[in-house]
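Table 4 source record.
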Amino acid sequence: METQPAQCPICEARGDVTRFEGRDCERVSCWECGCFTIGREALMRVKALSLEARRARLLAAKTETQAGELPYLSA
């Protein structure tokens, strides 16, 4: 597991990204968007979306998340 400063894939502000060895996802911690997990395939697809569409995807993931869990964006 390795955490590094990086750009948030949703709002493009500075955030921290944790990459997990052997897992196909990353955990993002952003001052604007909060904490969430995103799959690598979803990461590639999100980059092609507009800012509004990226925020809508994150909001949908947050709405579907159970209490105590991190929102997960999948492809």
